[in-house]
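Technical note accompanying the year-one report. For the benefit of new consortium partners, we illustrate the data format agreed upon in the data management plan: each record pairs a sequence with a structure-token string. No post-processing was applied to the example shown here.
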Amino acid sequence: MGTTEGAAAGGPSLFAEQQRLWRRMLSAPSVFTLAQTTRVGTSPAEVVLAEGTHRLLHYRRETTATYAEPILFCYALVNRPTILDLQPDKSVVQQYLKRGFEVYLIDWGVPSDADRTLTLEHYVGDFLARAAAAVLDRQGADKLHLLGYCMGGTMAAIHAALRPQRVASLTLLAAPIDFGGEQTLLNLWTDPRHFNVDAMVDAYGNCPPWFLQTCFLLMNPVANLIEKNVAFYEQMDNPRVMTNHFALESWINDNIPVAGETFRRFVKGLYQENLLVKGLFELAGERVDLGRITAPLLLLTAKNDHLVAPSSTEGIRPHVGARDVQSMEIEAGHVGLVVSGKAHQSFWPAATRWLSDRSTPASDAAGRERHTST
């Protein structure tokens, strides 16, 4: 009797799991279709500046911009910038378009073997500077808002320090600035006692994409190699979850190399010597003085970021001349900061509101222009 009662008690639970198993198996064809058809980076945009592999994109607006100052996104040299426009409902680009800004983004492209000699001077001093100038010229504006994500945030901060007169505000999104801590494995792995960056660059030319991908996976192996696959199996019968999964996987696995000389300089000068916050970092012979950054500064960090510790981004505070400095932190990881549903429900609306509060209404700018012309 006890055995019968136990089977009866466990029966409905076992039956429900069997039903779920069949739903998962029967959904396999649609899952395969989603894997083939899911697209990322679909917000309409036009290329307004191109040089080599680099492109400056201008995103299309349905209405006239609300604010006079445009915003320029500077993404990292690792992976593709489509993470900022992953899906229509998980797009940082769309958040700023909806808030009323003209939005531009730098797509650095994929460096070839011939690009291994490209330096930070090329990326920051040359193309980023030209892109910013092109944005200002196209919009007829004196200043722009600058947003940098991860390594792109470091590059954006360097540009803002060298050309502060053109920066209306600076938003640093999970950007490493103070490299002195040991809060993440990247800081430990790049320690010169363990990592000879000269030998690697001399051997490979560019930093290979497989090396970067392996490093990122091994920084959180349980989540990246086990939990993610378990979650995939559990949610196979949920088309929305599958679409989200394939969109993110499409971006994660679209790895690109980093120009060898830029990688060498970034590792040695920043990770290993921490020259930026020491005030000793130079670009084309010009010292990068973070104290010259006086524009409003927004620091966006993720509490569970295993790539860039929030303290590294916050480390810019003692070194800038800005008085208007605000921080926002979210319970998420380095990528969840830009693609999680929670981030797009509250975090990004707050971040774009911060920027709108520090922007000039387009009507006011137009009125001043008419008054000046008369």
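Partners are asked to follow this layout when depositing records. Confidence is low (pLDDT under 50) at residues 1-8.
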